[in-house]
Amino acid sequence: MHLLENNKAYGKKIKKSHYHADMLSVEEARRKILSKFSKLETEKTPILKSLGNVISQDILSQIDVPPWNNSAMDGYAVIKKDLLRASEEDMVYLKVVEEIAAGQIPRKSLNNGETSRIMTGAPIPQNADAVVPFEDTNELERNNLEEIGIKINVDHYENIRKKSEDIKNGSVILNKGTIITSASIGLLASIGLNTVPTIRKPIVGILSTGNELIEPGQKNEPGKIFNSNSYTITSLIDSYGAVPKLQTHAQDNIEDLEKKLLNFIDVDLIITSAGVSKGDYDVVKDVLNKNGDINFWSVNMRPAKPLAFGIISLNNKKIPLLGLPGNPVSAMIALEKFGRYAIDKMMGKSIRHKPIIKAFLDSDIINHDGRRLYARVTVFRDSHSKLIAKPINNQSSGVLTSMQEANGLAICPSDIDILNKGQEIDVEMFNRKEDISEILN
Ligand code: AMP
Ligand code: MG
Questions:
Q1: I need a labelling partner for 99 at 20 to 30 A (CA). Which of 14, 33, 164, 184 fits?
Q2: What's the 305 CA to ligand 2 centre distance in angstroms?
Q3: Does the C-beta of 397 come closer than 6 Å to ligand 1?
């Protein structure tokens, strides 16, 4: 539990009448949802499709990286002992026996007094035990190409990258359970693999509902609004590492809804937006009730109280469905609080809460009705380097610009009726830890 219901450091208790026995806590709702998901199957994934996936078995290298000692500089491969007396004033002259470019194999081993001109990455010739960079030779001034003047004494193995210093043949380079990063993809490539066993990405069907909707790009019409939820949801799903499958929004009628849902028989999760408020008579609820075992919940949170979740049957296939509220801010927050966790679980990731930081509140936050309040705030550092959380003026769940402006959610526990200006509070940041430091600097 990372949440703060029992944190008595907060302000005064709210009146008993504000408790909501009929509501599920965020954690209860999430637990119920997560119980219906498990890790998906393993598949052989092309490395360039694997970013963010979880590796499903230890990856062993069957080669050494680097495969041989090689030069870290453009310069001359030398025998260290030949240069003991070398100095700027009194250069040691060596005979140049060959030139080795990257990608070539040395043909000559060195005898005392000999050197090979060598490029970065090229294999070190036999008997050489150091590389002298061009800048420590008379490379630029010399006129006899058969020999080179060396100005320095070098250490043993100076400017040589040793065989297997990065990866040893037979060693595990990536452990089962690792989330693949760009570096992991590079590592896989560096041992010659172009596929990797990972837990496959879930496919997520996305459907907004509502007679009032038109799609962006269409002509504006009286009485209509542009569908934004489909687009925030799709891009969030994308950012979670799953594969969004977006349908054009459905009208609030049974035929259209059922028809659009039938395009989702191959998905791992369906996400709908709107039409799930308790007390509403809504065809969305009718269709979900008729086709599946869907519960309509009130979750003890603001925004995003109404939520639907259950299993829908489409042509006898049973698919989990998460019904988000229609208000754009509620839809985003509910997706983050519930959908992301389900997707992470399917992808084999452990539970990853958003990072919580402490900040001082810039103005009061009032909790009217005893729900856990997630207030949109902008966190910044003031001139004394203190972290300040400034609530966005309009906290309406329909005001999507607030999500653009904010960089975190101040958490007001359900049993607290006011967070006071100047008080130190918890803020759940939108970004991951590594991004926060940037925001905080
Ligand atoms: P509902 O959940 O159907 O009661 O919708 C709540 C509010 O969200 C209404 O003002 C809707 O017009 C709005 N809304 C519903 N769906 C969308 C959507 N896809 N994009 C933007 N706003 C929406
Ligand atoms: Mg509606």
A1: 164
A2: 15
A3: no
